[in-house]
Amino acid sequence: MQNLNLRTLDLNLLIILQTLLEVRHVTRASEKLNMSQPKVSRALQKLRDAFNDPLLVRTLDGYDLSARAERLLPELNQIMGDLERMVAQESFDPATSRDRVKVYAVDLEVVAFLPQLLTKLRQHAPHMMLDIRSEPRDHFDLLAEGDVHFSLSGRVPTVMQDQYRMMPLAQSNMVCMMSSNHRLAGQQMTLEDYLGCCHGYVSITNEGPAMIDTYMSGMGKSRQLTTRLPNFTSAAYFCESSDLVVAIPEIIAQMVAKGHDVTIQPLPSEITLPPTQFNLYWHERYHNDPMCRWVRRVLLGH
User: Fold this and answer.
1) What is the pLDDT of residues 244-302, one digit of tens each?
2) How many structural domains does the chain have?
3) Mean pLDDT, the chain, integer
4) DSSP code at position 219
5) Is the whole model's pTM more than 0.70, yes or no?
6) Is 92 domain-assigned?
7) Domain range spanning residue 62?
8) Where are the beta strands (DSSP E) in 180-285?
9) What pLDDT, on the 0 to 100 scale, is given for residue 88?
10) Which of 33, 150, 184, 292 could form a disulfide with 286 if both were Cys (CB 3.0 to 4.6 A apart)?
11) Residue that terminates a domain, selected from 87, 110, 143
């Protein structure tokens, strides 16, 4: 073969070459390729020039392969098969997959949303593994770095938002958790009552003020913060043994309150926070991944 620059080689010529070598006839090759015979003939001449070889040679019975073409055909079939597999649509079979689904979520988000995923995995993908991470990290850093496929969060990315895709899972209003023996337990609190309490808040990433404090700052108000908690699970323990009041999403509060001497009640009517939205996030790199598409359908209940 001549010193051929592969960047200038038309892939269509290899498709024509494969057909010519298989059928060993220009006219039949043109019919199989649905091309005109003159066009196939011109392509054959380009291929002969490129390989510096006749490729097809005349015999008494028509055409036969040159010695070079005999060696080329099996190599060409393998190359074209590899190319077809490379560009073919990826498929995913949960029944045979041994993929690892990597998810980041904090304690109660894990409990609220991921058992249903595990149930589906055991039913339809018995060899797959659910790998859950909950260490104190920024949800979106993990996605950006490719360390996890998904992140469950009530937060939203503050930078590079076009990198992430999102699917809503649930929403929940904020409520107050406090001891059943708290002086305000069972009462409809006024804003003055609420501001007179000692407050705790959950900080997963140790970054920034709580959403409710940002909201109240806009009202020109502030709470007396006495305790920063590392996770939602601990909130019920602290509330039942002290005068602490913790504002958390109701879907989370109902789970952590079980087995504890605490009560859950609405925030003061003056505090009109929008519901907390729990979302499933993933990075753009995994948007078209077949396994990740299947997991998203499972979490949607499809």
Assistant:
1) 999 999 998 999 999 999 999 999 999 988 898 889 999 999 998 999 999 999 888 75
2) 3
3) 87
4) T
5) no
6) no
7) 6-87
8) 198-202, 224-229, 244-249, 262-266, 276-283
9) 61
10) 292
11) 87
**The domain spanning residue 12 has which CATH number?**
1.10.10.10
Query: Residue 58 is encoded by which pair of tokens?
Result: 């005349």
Does the structure show a pLDDT above 70 at 170? Answer: yes
Query: What's the DSSP call for residue 83?
Result: H
User: Do residues 160 and 26 both lie within one domain?
Assistant: no
Out of 38, 65, 87, a domain closes at: 87
Position 253 in a domain = yes
* Angle between the N-to-C axes of helices 290-299 and 107-124, in degrees from 0 to 180, rounded to the nearest 10: 110
Q: Is the dihedral of CA 65, 66, 71, 75 positive or negative?
A: negative
Distance CA 111, CA 54 (A): 69
Winning range, highest mean pLDDT, from 88-92, 109-113, 144-148, 152-156: 144-148
Residues 160 and 187 in one domain: no
Q: How far is the first Cα of the chain from the last one, in angstroms, to the nearest whole number?
A: 55
Q: Do residues 241 and 293 both lie within one domain? A: no
**DSSP E strands, the chain:** 56-59, 62-65, 100-104, 129-133, 150-153, 164-172, 174-179, 198-202, 224-229, 244-249, 262-266, 276-283
Alpha-carbon distances of 168 from 152, 196, 280, 282, 285, rounded to whole Å: 10, 35, 6, 12, 19
Of 228, 280, 276, 216, the C-alpha closest to 252 is 276
Check residues 120 and 84 and name the one with the higher pLDDT: 120
